[in-house]
Write a structure and sequence with these properties.
Shape: globular
Largest sheet: 13 strands, mixed
Distance between the termini: 17 Å
Order of helices and strands: EHEHEEEEHEEHHEEEHEHE
Structural class: alpha+beta
Helix content: 25-40%
CATH topology of the largest domain: Aminopeptidase
Number of helices: 7
CATH superfamily of the largest domain: Gcn5-related N-acetyltransferase (GNAT)
Radius of gyration: 20 Å
CATH class of the largest domain: Alpha Beta
CATH architecture of the largest domain: 3-Layer(aba) Sandwich
Length: 268
């Protein structure tokens, strides 16, 4: 494994390995690559036909691939777990051959997530009666610490897109985190952000001790209603495909499968 030291080096890799029929999960923007190189967090493996980019995270590496030869064996050895995600259109188009390639190279399938979407003009009315739950926007550093702890207790380590305290405070400053309280006790939170005019639901977690109080319903309702800018407002999220409770929550409001899924693979 070697470090990518400049964007010129990376650009040369793209020209060599990113061809017409290359299989790739590369959806990283150029400015993000610049930032990763400046922070010395980007590494690579290359071979005659294939290129692997690894982004160093606190507890693992995130892998992006450019595969031109599925018969080639890759020797990827690092000291942390490696995870990747493969995006595809619809369950019928799951890239079995590509997944088999990675399984031959020491990876195992981890989670499959589905993309759900909603247009405001398709919103279902959901009547929620629960007067003892307070829903408000996060404001303080104390709330940021509580939110971080709650998210980390429930999200998958490798695909949960863990947020740093700094990132959480940035979302708080943008009014992008909604909290729930019962009897002045913090018991749930929802984080969202707006990208390309889509209101993305990033994280939503209810404390285990307070589930059954309609908290998730109230958080989602607040998230939708406070971002209802026009009849064409669009909302999206990712949900684990076998999380029946979460899918039921979202479909209740009118979210539907957008014909996009992603499978993550993991090498420990």
């Amino acid at each position: 494994m070697q470090k990518v030291n400049s964007f010129d080096t990376l650009d040369a890799f793209f020209k060599k390995y990113f061809l017409k029929n290359t299989l790739t999960n590369n959806y990283v923007l150029a400015e993000t690559y610049h930032e990763l190189i400046n922070k010395e967090q980007l590494y690579f493996f290359d071979s005659n036909s294939n290129l692997i980019l690894l982004v160093e995270k606190p507890n693992f590496f995130q892998l992006y691939f450019f595969i031109n030869n599925l018969d080639e064996q890759l020797a990827i050895h690092v000291e942390k777990p490696i995870t990747m995600e493969i995006l595809y259109r619809g369950t019928a188009n799951k890239p079995i051959e590509l997944i088999n390639f990675w399984e031959r190279n020491g990876f195992k399938q981890h989670l499959t997530r589905d993309n759900l979407s909603l247009s405001l003009n398709k919103l279902n009315h959901v009547d929620i009666k629960n007067n003892h739950v307070l829903i408000k926007y996060a404001e303080s550093n104390e709330e940021a610490i509580a939110i971080k702890s709650l998210f980390e207790s429930s999200l998958d380590l490798y695909t949960g897109d863990s947020l740093s305290l700094e990132e959480i405070n940035e979302f708080i400053n943008k009014k992008n985190i909604i909290c729930a309280y019962i009897d002045n006790k913090f018991c749930g939170a929802l984080q969202f952000e707006i990208k390309n005019n889509i209101i993305w639901l990033g994280h939503i977690v209810t404390d285990l001790n307070y589930r059954g109080n309609g908290i998730a319903n109230l958080l989602v309702k607040k998230y939708i209603e406070d971002n209802a800018n026009n009849p064409n407002s669009r909302y999206q999220l990712w949900v684990i495909d076998d999380n029946i409770a979460a899918k039921s929550l979202y479909t209740k409001f009118g979210f539907i499968y957008s014909n996009k899924s992603t499978t993550s693979l993991l090498k420990l």
